[in-house]
Amino acid sequence: MPEEPAMAKKKVADLALMGGVPRFERPLHVGQPNVGDRARLHERLDAILDRRWLTNHGPEVIELERRLTALLGVRHCIAVCNGTVALEIAIRALGLQGEVIVPSFTFVATAHALQWQEITPVFCDVDAETHTLDPVRVEQMISSRTTGILGVHLWGRACDVEGLSEIARRHRLALLFDAAHALGVSRRGRMIGNFGDCEVFSFHATKVFNTFEGGAIATNDDALAQKIRWMQNFGFSNYDQVDHIGVNGKMSEICAAMGLVSLESLDDFVAVNSRNHARYVERLSRLPGLRLLTYDQAERHNHHYVVAEVLPEAGLDRDALVDVLMAERVLARRYFYPGVHRMEPYASLYPNAGLLLPVTEALVERTLVLPTGTGVSFEELDAVCEIIEVALSGAAAIRARRSARPVSLAGRNARPMLAPVRPRRAGGAR
Ligand code: T4K
């Protein structure tokens, strides 16, 4: 019989947390970038340098906006330097002030984009199944100071856009969506990008589609699009003429080139994600206490996030499982722990916000995001599943080990571990 490699995980004693050899030599990341055709990217970079047109709405940005507009089936898609600045511009262009209702179960940028402009983010609870804003709770949070609702299509699963639109219409509120996770996703057959007053995408390196850093604002409102374009470029409406307050939110040509190359491979990226997601569901959803989030088969999805909820029946809590995985160099993430309302400045400004966020408070304790994307091979993914299976089967031993030596890799000090990355080749588009 061939011998098992030293790092194979067959029993709980093999786990690195229990003294075994780590399964992976180099870290396995959530959010390792998808990279398209390198030769095409190099060609585009040469063309940019030959043209000597590096930024300020050059031909690459114009082409990217044209293709994104077509992909989304929307009237306008304005490329921006990153998703956070795109949110800030959208919020400003919509004239939001006072209070805006927003989930706390999101990346901190969603709330920061409001607070940065001295608008109060009013944290609203999410639905336990969908992880997105619960319209019933949204309506309860509306006050005389409320000017808008900012929903988040978390994990690329669309909010209840119909419910939120109806509330916004009835209360005359602006409605925008943080669609950072939702490029290539549909809602009732219509692409995300078409809902609310506008929707904001992130094209950060860790997203399914990336421009290194980048983002975009999509809208069907011509006047709003015009205002966003001015605001994104210092308020210039013409040479020498400034009609608005504005910032520098422009996307550079090099980022747009990466975007065009990424767009050409987007279907391949999504196919890999979709295959990976199906494999995780197949192997992990049969384990007691693990709930894998699924995607509505009737819609288009990017399957970019593999999200598990670790329930009490698992025998290990989420942080224990993260410790097990981190010891194997699987950098699973606790997105979006501890909830924005527990981060500063919000924790000090609104110390009791958690009382109104019971679902969020539960989700931040049990949600786990696993590695996927073209940087993760199918074999690596199976090895991650194997680690989880072995860990849950030996939950009691792991609990005992952790209480004897309570050093948590999942704590704040874990971050320096993320630094060393060695280049490598794996399956998927390159
Ligand atoms: N709204 C929502 C709902 C969002 O999720 C985000 C961003 C935004 C708004 C704001 O959009 P941007 O302004 O970022 O365009 C990461 C991303 O930096 C952030 O863009 C993203 N959400 C968030 C969910 O994830 P961190 O703090 O987790 O990043 P970091 O450095 O820990 O990287 C994540 C993992 O990816 C690590 O294991 C390392 C790996 N990685 C990262 C980069 C940048 C790589 O392997 N290669 C890389 O190039 O926030």
Summarize the structure.
The chain is α/β, with parallel strands linked by helices and 430 residues long. Helices cover 36% and strands 14% of the residues. Helix 1 (38-51) packs antiparallel against helix 8, helix 2 (59-72) runs parallel beside helix 8 and helix 9 (266-284) packs parallel to helix 13.
Q: What order do the helices and strands come in, and which of them pair?
A:
Layout: E1 28-29, H1 38-51, H2 59-72, E2 76-80, H3 83-93, E3 99-103, H4 109-115, E4 120-124, H5 135-141, E5 146-152, H6 161-171, E6 174-178, E7 186-187, E8 190-191, E9 198-202, E10 215-219, H7 222-232, E11 236-238, E12 241-242, H8 253-264, H9 266-284, E13 290-292, E14 306-310, H10 318-327, E15 330-331, H11 346-349, H12 358-366, E16 367-370, H13 378-393, H14 395-404
Helix pairs in contact: 1-8, 2-8, 3-4, 3-7, 9-13
Bound molecules: ligand T4K.
The site of ligand T4K has 24 residues, from helix 3 and helix 4.
Detailed description of the structure:
The protein is an alpha/beta fold. It folds into two domains: 38-261, Type I PLP-dependent aspartate aminotransferase-like (Major domain) (Aspartate Aminotransferase, domain 2); 266-404, Aspartate Aminotransferase, domain 1. 36% of the residues lie in helices and 14% in strands. The protein is built from 14 helices and 16 strands. The strands form five sheets. The chain has a seven-stranded mixed β-sheet with strand order 2-10-9-6-5-3-4, with helices on both faces. It has a three-stranded antiparallel β-sheet with strand order 13-14-16. The protein has a two-stranded parallel sheet with strand order 1-15. Strand 11 (236-238) and strand 12 form a beta hairpin. Helix 2 runs parallel beside helix 8 and helix 3 packs across helix 4. The two termini are 37 Å apart. The model is unreliable at 412-430 (pLDDT under 50). The structure holds ligand T4K.
